[in-house]
Write a structure and sequence with these properties.
- About 40% of the residues lie in helices and about 20% in strands.
- The protein has about 350 residues and is of the alpha/beta class.
- It has two domains: about 190 residues, Isopropylmalate Dehydrogenase (3-Layer(aba) Sandwich), CATH 3.40.718.10; about 170 residues, 3-Layer(aba) Sandwich (Isopropylmalate Dehydrogenase).
- Strands 2-1-3-12-11-4-5-10-8-9 form a ten-stranded mixed sheet, sandwiched between helices. A two-stranded antiparallel sheet has the order 6-7. It has a two-stranded parallel ribbon with strand order 13-14.
- Strand 1, helix 1 and strand 2 form a beta-alpha-beta unit.
- The relative contact order is 0.16.
- The structure holds 3-isopropylmalic acid and magnesium ion (MG).
- 3-isopropylmalic acid (IPM) binds next to helix 4.
- 3-isopropylmalic acid binds next to helix 4.
Amino acid sequence: MAKHILILPGDGIGPEIIAEARKILEVLIAQGLVLSFSEGLIGGAAYEATGTPLPDATLADAKQADAVLLGAVGGPVWESLPMHLRPEKGLLGLRAELGLFANLRPAVLAPQLAAASTLKPEVVAGLDIMIVRELTGGIYFGQPRGIRIRDDGQREGVNTLVYSEHEIERIVRTACDVALQRDGRLCSVDKANVLECTELWREVATRVVREEYPEITLSHLYVDNAAMQLVKAPKQFDVIVTSNLFGDILSDCAAMLTGSIGMLGSASLNATGQGMYEPIHGSAPDIAGRGIANPLATLLSVAMMLRYSLAEPQVAQQIEAAVAAVLDAGLRTPDIMSPGMTEVSCQTMGDAVAQHLHGST
Ligand code: IPM
Ligand code: MG
């Protein structure tokens, strides 16, 4: 049966980068890949059209789909809305409702872009890290939460960091499975010197690896040290596994090691292998509508989708090769521009990848 993809462009540069992804999917379909896709509303765009950032129809379509491809959500116009109506709630709701607990965020430096990093080339050349971020638990979802008024009249803000053993076990297993396909080294990041919740995290991670993955080399770092090590000597890492909030922060940091957050895709998977795929970058409202966004993170997310949810690893490789080919040809969107290269628009970049894909099969 044809696999079905739900496409959610979202806000800001979302629609522009998703248009380039659709172009690629159409080339693949024309070449015989059996899949179909439809579009839905999410985030601020959904709020404007329906009054909620995650309409029931979107959720129902997402549950039916084999994979979801998302652009980006959010923007300044919605920042003053109550929390439950903000675009980000649409994304968080989708993650929770689909049970997408495992977020894979690769930080890979394309050799053509070694000069784009703010770090010295020798520190980042050949960088290839995978951050496995827990995505449906921790302080993002813990109860109680909110802003409340104390007996003395003072307001206080509350969020709760909570992880069950089960939640820790399953994300550590996913990270181990990922590490087995790579160098077999896993670094678990916590704050076990201060937070009991992550003391449990460390204990469970240690047990899972000892009992189930003896071939994995496990190390532990406190999150502050991990942040420092990431900018000091990032190539020491193979796979990092960490909680929702720490993963959010460390993955932005790791992304910048590669020069541009505009180059990195991500996969969010549930227990059945269904996944949501999105670029790591946000909706970039400051450049939206100007045609200068970098679509490559979205195209590389499509490659991840083909690999992890659609069982088409060869097609995934073709997309990755086409992206490498346009970089080799010197095409650069402004975020990755360097002297001697050719600056191109979002659309021209998408066209070039589509053309290479066309020629390569
Ligand atoms: C991310 C983003 C989201 C997060 C926001 C948009 C809710 O920063 O995917 O990293 O915090 O998870
Ligand atoms: Mg983030």
